């Protein structure tokens, strides 16, 4: 009944993550199909990405001593020609790229970009995490919310709606092996949120030690897709470090997840309902496919109690639900159901690889001869026992700590669709659950137009973004920037204000 093969269309972030185990049939074994690595590689090519290596693990003799740093962060300013006007009032606009040797690793170095706010040095510090798992932060930087985008001719052009218009903005390549982040020891590959969040916490400590003037600023964690897993774990790790006075106090104020995968049990159940609502499948398809749900849910429960292999089995069982929908919907772009995939490609992100392989760009960034692995199939595969974990369970404690939580979703994404996200947000048990549930849904207004629908109570906000797919800042850059600004300023500002970015 279900297909046994994932086509390249499904790759991108969430996808990448969700669907590497393509066999939907319970009777087939893991090895009866392409290996997860081969599958991930095929899917990466479907995004028109062609990383030379499956993962950024270098042999020792190839390791460049020029990047040696005695355990310290090494950051450099870079200047790349950017067309247009930054619109900045800040005199000394700093763009930085750096490497940080991760202390709780054998030999890993985390690469990051850091952009001074175009508005004010006092703006919050915001870190962005791209999903995959295994895709570089540079995909978001150059195609979503970075200070500049790549034109077709590879020129950089200022992005009027870059999130550096309102924040001091960090993009990291993580987990280790992704983007320009690398190691000489394959034991540094991460397999779970504990490993991921410890590395991110260590990075933050080093980052703020290197930028002491930013320690007092507000700090926010943001990201997309599989970052729906990373972010709650990372936020909890920061709170834990703060409470134990482990190092520099991180002034964490909240986190935002865009089109994330956070609570798989609820989100997998929502696939058929979303697909039916959007007329992608019929009522009878819906009911047929839903007969697979009990097994998927049971698998997720087993994963929660047993972990390990049980989590891989749950992934297989649950993916059969998605594969059934895919069989019916054909070449629709699952990141944005308004679009179809042309040939093998749904999106074309190849320019980021071309750009980051140019010698002048690599020299400017100080990456020497380190490979750029746009998306790592090895990192993706290494996280497969993490995929079916429910990361929503940690969020109530973070809300009780007073952190602001924003869950947003572009309405035309099937993969990490708004319906599943809305459901888990409503189902989450916390002290404000009832009042959140009965809060009115109100328009999110940008420049006088309705840009979405939102609901909030206390520190928790859910926002459905209109006319957007999986990558909200790419599809609705102006609304996404205002969302960030208003949310950071407080929920009252978010509900009403539409004047700030309206110029
Ligand atoms: C490259 O594209 C940008 C944006 O479309 C344009 O402004 C610029 O003139 C182009 N540069 C060249 C050399 O064609």
From TrEMBL:
Keywords: Carboxypeptidase, Disulfide bond, Glycoprotein, Hydrolase, Protease, Secreted, Signal
Family matches, as SUPFAM superfamilies: alpha/beta-Hydrolases
Known EC number: 3.4.16.-
A GO-annotated cellular component: extracellular region
Chief place where the protein resides: secreted
Signal peptide from the UniProt entry: 1-24
Gene Ontology terms for molecular function: serine-type carboxypeptidase activity
Class of the enzyme per the UniProt entry, highest EC level: hydrolase
UniProt keyword annotation of Isomerase present: no
InterPro entries (UniProt xref): AB_hydrolase_fold, Peptidase_S10, Ser_caboxypep_his_AS, Ser_caboxypep_ser_AS
Pfam families: Peptidase_S10
GO biological process: proteolysis
Record bears the keyword Hydrolase: yes
Subcellular location: Secreted
Function: Probable carboxypeptidase.
Family: Belongs to the peptidase S10 family.
Protein name: Carboxypeptidase
Organism: Eucalyptus globulus (Tasmanian blue gum)
């Amino acid at each position: 009944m279900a297909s046994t093969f994932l086509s390249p269309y499904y790759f991108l972030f969430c996808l990448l993550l969700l669907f590497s185990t393509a066999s939907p049939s319970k009777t087939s074994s893991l090895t009866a199909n392409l290996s997860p690595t081969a599958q991930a590689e095929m899917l990466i090519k479907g995004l028109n990405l062609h990383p030379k290596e499956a993962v950024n693990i270098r042999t020792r003799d190839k390791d460049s001593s020029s990047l040696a740093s005695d355990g310290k962060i090494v950051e450099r300013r870079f200047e790349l020609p950017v067309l247009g006007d930054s619109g900045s009032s800040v005199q000394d606009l700093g763009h930085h790229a750096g490497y940080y040797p991760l202390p709780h690793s054998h030999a890993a170095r985390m690469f990051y970009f850091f952009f001074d706010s175009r508005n004010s040095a006092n703006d919050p510090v915001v870190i962005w995490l791209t999903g995959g798992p295994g895709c570089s932060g540079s995909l978001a930087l150059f195609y979503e919310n970075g200070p500049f985008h790549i034109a077709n001719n590879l020129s950089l052009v200022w992005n009027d709606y870059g999130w550096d218009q309102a924040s001091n903005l960090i993009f990291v390549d993580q987990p280790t092996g992704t983007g320009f982040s690398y190691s000489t020891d394959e034991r540094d590959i991460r397999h779970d949120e504990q490993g991921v969040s410890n590395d991110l916490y260590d990075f933050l400590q080093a980052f703020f030690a290197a930028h002491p003037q930013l320690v007092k600023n507000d700090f926010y964690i943001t990201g997309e897709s599989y970052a729906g897993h990373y972010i709650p774990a990372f936020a909890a790790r920061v709170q834990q470090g703060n409470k134990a006075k482990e190092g520099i106090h991180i002034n964490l104020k909240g986190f935002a997840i865009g089109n994330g995968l956070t609570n798989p049990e609820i989100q997998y159940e929502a696939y058929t309902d979303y697909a039916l609502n959007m007329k992608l499948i019929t009522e009878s398809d819906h009911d047929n496919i839903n007969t697979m749900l009990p097994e998927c849910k049971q698998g997720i429960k087993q994963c929660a109690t047993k972990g390990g292999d049980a989590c891989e089995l749950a992934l297989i069982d649950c993916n059969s639900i998605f594969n059934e929908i895919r069989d019916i919907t054909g070449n629709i772009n699952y990141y944005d159901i308004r679009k179809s995939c042309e040939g093998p490609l749904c999106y074309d992100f190849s320019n980021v690889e071309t750009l980051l392989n140019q010698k002048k760009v690599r020299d400017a960034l100080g990456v020497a001869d380190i490979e750029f692995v746009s998306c790592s199939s090895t990192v993706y595969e290494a996280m497969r026992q993490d995929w079916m974990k429910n990361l929503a369970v940690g969020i109530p404690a973070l809300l009780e700590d007073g952190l602001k939580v924003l869950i947003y979703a572009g309405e035309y994404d099937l993969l990490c669709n708004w319906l599943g996200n809305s459901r888990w947000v409503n189902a989450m048990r916390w002290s404000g659950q009832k009042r959140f549930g009965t809060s009115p849904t109100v328009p999110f207004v940008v420049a006088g137009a309705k840009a979405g629908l939102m609901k909030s109570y206390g520190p928790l906000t859910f926002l459905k973004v209109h006319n957007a797919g999986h990558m909200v800042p790419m599809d609705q850059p102006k609304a996404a920037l205002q969302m960030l600004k208003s949310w950071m300023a407080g929920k009252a500002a978010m509900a009403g204000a539409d004047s700030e970015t309206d110029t």
